[in-house]
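Structure first, sequence second, as always.
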């Protein structure tokens, strides 16, 4: 038996309880978790913004050590350090055939499977976003496992599985920030902090961080922000004031709220680019009039998982880490145990801190 954080139903609080985890079957891998990041997507699953079958063990950003493998698994062996990939590409659907693996139609089919049982009542459990990282150990499909980069501690590598891939990809794959361009990043949580570092790596000349909390300024500047704006009704005007009244070349929205998306768009120059990373609910309606769309010539685009291919991007990120260009410690503002996840959710709702990291 292992301890895990179980979501019994949408809208219910997490329960830290013991689960019975089976040995890996054909094409599966059992992993002992070293660490798991507490992501806003996990919170979105608890409140119904995103939906997966429940009851489920949540957690999708993690890394650990292979305990055992099932029949047919050859790319990893017991003792290997691995990073979990919560959205594995099938390689067969239309999106995959176009090379857009981050849009794979079958990436989340594993979330509907039954992978464990509660120890107290024997009820079936689903693996959240495929990998159930909020547990001391987990069993996942082999295509959800990538070898951890050499020279990167597993507790750091956990962050590569979502926050860093998303933030880096938003800058380098979606917005395609060019050296010398100006960038505004809305939301200084785990993904926002990764985005700020990615903008610095891309060579942005000015990097403006925006958040509702004045307390996050120091954190944002450590990640690479050259300027900091406390979110208000005048945010777009302030950003234009910091960019010669033009607006930034690129805005990256990491919040998922209609007002923030609209403000990010307004903060860009004519012809500017806005990438939306934040996951908002269906009630968050963003409106534009036809004339302004024509006049400003701006681009607004969604961004899934940083438009990344984890198998290709992890080695690139590892090289940035080894070279000192990417500092994962800047993202983490709290180390917690499994029992601390509900409080970490509360801090996210309150807009406090960066990434909370569960360390096993």
């Amino acid at each position: 038996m292992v301890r895990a954080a179980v979501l019994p139903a949408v809208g219910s609080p997490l329960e830290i309880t013991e689960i019975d985890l089976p040995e890996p079957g054909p094409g599966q891998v059992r992993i002992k978790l070293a660490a798991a990041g507490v992501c806003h997507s996990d919170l979105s699953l608890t409140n119904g913004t995103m939906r997966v079958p429940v009851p489920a063990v949540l957690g999708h950003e993690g890394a650990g050590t292979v305990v055992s493998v099932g029949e047919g698994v050859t790319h990893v062996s017991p003792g290997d350090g691995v990073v979990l990939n919560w959205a594995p590409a099938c390689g067969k659907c239309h999106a995959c055939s176009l090379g857009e693996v981050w849009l794979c139609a079958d990436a989340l089919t594993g979330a509907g499977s039954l992978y464990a049982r509660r120890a107290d009542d024997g009820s079936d459990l689903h693996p959240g976003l495929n990998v159930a990282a909020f547990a001391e150990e987990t069993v996942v499909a082999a295509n959800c496992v990538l070898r951890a980069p050499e020279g990167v501690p597993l507790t750091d590598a956990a962050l590569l599985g979502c926050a860093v891939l998303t933030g880096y990809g938003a800058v380098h794959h979606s917005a395609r920030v060019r050296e010398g361009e100006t960038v505004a990043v809305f939301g200084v949580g785990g993904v926002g902090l990764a985005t700020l570092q990615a903008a610095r790596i891309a060579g942005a000349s000015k990097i403006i961080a925006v958040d509702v909390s004045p307390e996050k300024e120091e954190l944002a500047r450590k990640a690479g922000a050259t300027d900091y704006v406390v979110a208000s009704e005048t945010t777009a005007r302030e950003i234009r004031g910091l960019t010669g009244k033009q607006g930034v070349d690129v805005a990256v929205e990491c919040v998922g709220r209609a007002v923030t998306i609209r403000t990010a768009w307004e903060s860009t120059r004519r012809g500017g680019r806005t990438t939306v990373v934040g996951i908002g609910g269906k009630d968050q309606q963003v409106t534009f009039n036809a004339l302004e769309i024509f006049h400003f010539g701006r681009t607004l685009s969604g961004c899934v998982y940083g438009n990344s291919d984890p198998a290709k991007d992890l080695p690139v990120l590892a090289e940035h880490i080894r070279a000192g260009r990417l500092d994962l410690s800047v993202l983490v503002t709290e180390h917690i145990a499994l029992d601390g996840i509900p409080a970490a959710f509360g801090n996210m709702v309150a807009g406090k801190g960066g990434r909370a990291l569960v360390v096993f």
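Margin note: The longest strand covers residues 28-38.
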